[in-house]
């Protein structure tokens, strides 16, 4: 059954609330995101279900799950959302206004270590722009609007996405000078087994390109694991052990020394956003600002 084939198109406000609940997986989470109260969200979902004569959500002890009808309507609602975004982009394009909110999702190393000190200049330039930086090690779904722009370490292979390579970066072995004075440094790859190691939490790695410990040592066994690139850098700086760090982060810490026993490895950052946002002035402005900032300071990553 095609939910909209024989019925009047639903209220856009209700569709927006439906999408928020579907993406949050719960009414309370959606209410917080929309800055509405729980009862209002519940009422509007119920009104949408009544207008469609279909049950869209199944209530569970942990939240709200889409029913088969809800899954079908989700595709319709996302197309409606895309059409609305395209219409707004076309209108905004006419007056060139850069306004509204842009959420950027990024790994914490790049998000905090590079973007956070620089995005303030963009907000200063465009006073009607609101920036949200979410620098956490996780995957962001652009189709589900978890972020408007994502910085990734892999080029996406699926979906209607625009992907621009920003820069290559390197990761290498580092230790604190205090650690070096007390324990010395490994001269060969095999020597790493005799040292204290700092690393990431394997089961929380969000992309295969970030699971790189084996490239440094087949038996890498970290006694101290942190699910944050910046957290690992701080632990190594404190003398907790030897770690695999982003070169552009480690260079800013004079307490650290480079370990040449194992060659550094290369990865890349990609800037990605949904194709439907291509013409939105605020998205273009933020994407261009990030790309220009990286290009101007490319030497930090080389």
Features:
nine-stranded mixed β-sheet, alpha/beta, D-Maltodextrin-Binding Protein, domain 2, 10 helices, Arc Repressor Mutant, subunit A, about 40% helix, about 300 residues, disordered N terminus, 3 domains, 11 strands, two-stranded antiparallel sheet
Report on this structure.
The protein is of the alpha/beta class. The chain has 3 domains: 12-94, Arc Repressor Mutant, subunit A (Orthogonal Bundle), CATH 1.10.10; 97-167 and 268-300, D-Maltodextrin-Binding Protein, domain 2, CATH 3.40.190; 168-266, 3-Layer(aba) Sandwich (D-Maltodextrin-Binding Protein, domain 2). Helices cover 38% and strands 21% of the residues. Helix 1 (12-24) crosses helix 2 (27-34) and helix 1 (12-24) packs across helix 4. The chain is elongated, with a radius of gyration of 23 Å.
Kindly summarize this structure in a few lines.
This protein has 302 residues and is an alpha/beta fold. The chain is 38% helix and 21% strand.
Q: What share of residues is helical?
A: 25-40%
Individual helix count? 10
Query: What is the number of strand segments?
Result: 11
**Domains counted in the coordinates: how many?**
3
Top CATH class of the largest domain:
Alpha Beta
The residue ranges in which pLDDT falls below 50 over 5 or more consecutive positions are: 1-6
Corresponding CATH architecture of the largest domain? 3-Layer(aba) Sandwich
* CATH level 4 superfamily of the largest domain: Periplasmic binding protein-like II
User: How would you state the average pLDDT, rounded?
Assistant: 88
Q: How does the overall form come out from the CA principal axes?
A: elongated
According to CATH, what is the topology of the largest domain?
D-Maltodextrin-Binding Protein, domain 2
Largest sheet: 9 strands, mixed
H and E string: HHHEEHEHHEEEHEEHEHEEH
Q: Taking Cα atoms only, what radius of gyration do you get, to the nearest Å? A: 23 Å
Strand content: 15-25%
Secondary-structure-derived class: alpha/beta
- Termini gap: 55 Å
């Amino acid at each position: 059954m095609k939910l909209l084939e024989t019925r009047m198109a639903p209220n856009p406000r209700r569709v927006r609330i439906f999408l928020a609940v579907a993406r949050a997986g719960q009414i309370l989470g959606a209410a917080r995101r929309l800055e509405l109260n729980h009862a209002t969200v519940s009422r509007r979902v119920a009104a949408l279900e009544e207008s469609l004569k279909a049950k869209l959500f199944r209530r569970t002890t942990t939240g709200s799950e889409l029913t088969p009808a809800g899954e079908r309507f989700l595709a319709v609602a996302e197309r409606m959302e895309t059409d609305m975004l395209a219409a707004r982009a076309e209108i905004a394009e006419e007056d060139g206004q850069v306004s509204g909110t842009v959420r950027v999702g990024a790994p914490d190393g790049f998000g905090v270590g590079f973007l956070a000190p620089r995005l303030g200049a963009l907000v200063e330039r465009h006073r009607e722009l609101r920036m949200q930086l979410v620098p956490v090690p996780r995957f962001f779904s652009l189709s589900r609007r978890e972020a408007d722009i994502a910085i990734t370490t892999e080029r996406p292979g699926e979906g209607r996405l625009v992907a621009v390579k920003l820069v290559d970066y390197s990761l290498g072995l580092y230790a604190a000078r205090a650690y070096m004075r007390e324990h010395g440094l490994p001269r060969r790859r095999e020597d790493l087994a005799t040292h204290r190691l700092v690393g990431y939490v394997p089961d929380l790695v969000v992309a295969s390109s970030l699971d790189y410990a084996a490239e440094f040592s087949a038996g890498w066994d970290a006694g101290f694991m942190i699910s944050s690139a910046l957290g690992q850098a701080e632990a190594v700086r404190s003398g907790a052990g030897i770690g695999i760090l982003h070169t552009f982060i480690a260079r800013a810490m004079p307490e650290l020394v480079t370990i040449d026993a194992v060659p550094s490895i290369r990865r890349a950052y990609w800037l990605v956003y949904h194709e439907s946002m291509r013409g939105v002035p605020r998205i273009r402005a933020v994407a261009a600002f990030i790309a220009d900032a990286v290009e101007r300071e490319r030497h930090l990553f080389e």
